[in-house]
C-alpha cells in the first residue's frame, strides 16, 4: 500500500540527570504506525501527561532527532529534508498549544501571513499573497479585514489559534501536526476549533496528527486513534473500532470519561517518580495499574496483537497471557485467531 504516513520502529531516548549518575528513558519506544494515502485522515494521539505524545510530534516535525527508526511522509523519509527546511515546511506544518507564543507581540499578525505566503506559499507578490491569505482566513471563519493591521494581543486565544491554522493552510501542506491545540482555549470553543480540522481535512485534503488530552474532542473528529502509554503505542486503530470496542485496559480506563465535553485526565494522576519508574519497567508499562495484570505482564514486554483490520494492541490479555518467544520491540505483529 502507498502510505501518507509511515512511522517505523521509532525510538527516542533522553538522558536524565548528570553524566555519572544519570539515567536514560525511552520516551518513545518502537512505535510503528502506517496510514494509507488517498483519503485524508485525522489521527488523534491520546494519553495522559508524560506518555510521549509531544516527543513523537516533535520528531515528526523534525524539531528533535530520533534515536532510531524512521518516519516517511508521502513515502519520503524525513532525512530527505535535512538540507531543505523550506520544502519540509511546505509539506508539514505545526500548530502549537499556545497561539500567543507562535506570534511575537510586537509584530502584526498579517505580517506573518504575508511572510508565509511569499516564502512558503509560492506567492510572487503581495497581491497574490493577499488572495491566498483571504482564502485561508475564510476557511477558518475569519475575514481579512478583521485581521489586517492587528497585533496578537488584539485577538482572543480562540481567534489567534484560528489564525495559526489559516497560516498553516497557506502552504497547502500534506500534514498538519497539532500539539494540544485546544488546551489553552475556552472549553466552549474547543469543539469549534477541532471541527475546523474536520472541515479543512476534506476541503484541503490535508492529514492531521492531533495530539490531545481532551478525549471528547478526539472522540468527535478522529479517523484513527493511537494511545500512548510511557512511550509505547499500546493501542492503535480505526477510531470507530477503538472507541466502540477499546481492547487495551488502559484505553478502556481512558474512555470511561467520554463523551463529557472537556473531559481530561488529571495531570497529577500519576506522580512524576512513578512515571519514571514505569518508564523503566521490563514488562508492560501499565502492569502496576492494570486490573488484569498477571505475572507474565510484569516480566515480559507484551507483543503487538492485531485484533482486526488496522486495530492493534500491545497486551498479553489478548493472547490469553501466552508468553511470546519474541517481544513487541522486535516489531512483529501477531494476528489474533
Ligand atoms: N528533553 C527532555 N529531556 C529529558 N526527558 C524528556 C525530555 N522531553 C521529554 N522528556 C520526558 O519524556 C517523557 C515523555 O514526555 P512528553 O512530553 O513527550 O509526554 P506527553 O505525553 O507529551 O506529556 P504532556 O501531555 O504533559 O505534554 C516524559 O517522562 C518527559 O519527562
SSE blueprint and pairings:
Elements: E1 3-16, E2 23-36, E3 42-46, H1 53-60, E4 68-73, E5 76-77, H2 85-91, E6 92-95, H3 99-102, H4 109-119, H5 126-139, H6 144-147, H7 157-170, E7 175-179, H8 187-204, E8 207-212, H9 215-221, E9 224-229, E10 232-238, H10 239-244, H11 249-255, H12 272-279, H13 295-299, E11 304-308, E12 311-314, E13 333-335
Parallel strand pairs: 3-8, 3-9, 6-7, 7-8, 11-13
Antiparallel strand pairs: 1-2, 1-4, 4-5, 9-10, 10-12, 11-12
Helix pairs in contact: 4-5, 4-7, 5-7, 7-8, 8-9
Bound molecules: adenosine-5'-triphosphate.
Written overview of the protein:
Residues 5-255 form the ABC transporter domain. InterPro entries: AAA+_ATPase, ABC_transporter-like_ATP-bd, ABC_transporter-like_CS, Oligopep_ABC_C, P-loop_NTPase. This is Peptide/nickel transport system ATP-binding protein. There is one protein chain. By secondary structure, this protein is an alpha/beta fold. The protein has 13 helices and 13 strands. It has helices spanning 53-60, 85-91, 99-102, 109-119, 126-139, 144-147, 157-170, 187-204, 215-221, 239-244, 249-255, 272-279, 295-299; strands spanning 3-16, 23-36, 42-46, 68-73, 76-77, 92-95, 175-179, 207-212, 224-229, 232-238, 304-308, 311-314, 333-335. It has a 9-stranded mixed beta sheet, sandwiched between helices. A 4-stranded antiparallel beta sheet has the order 2-1-4-5, covered by helices on one side. The site of adenosine-5'-triphosphate (ATP) has 13 residues, from strand 1, strand 2 and helix 1.
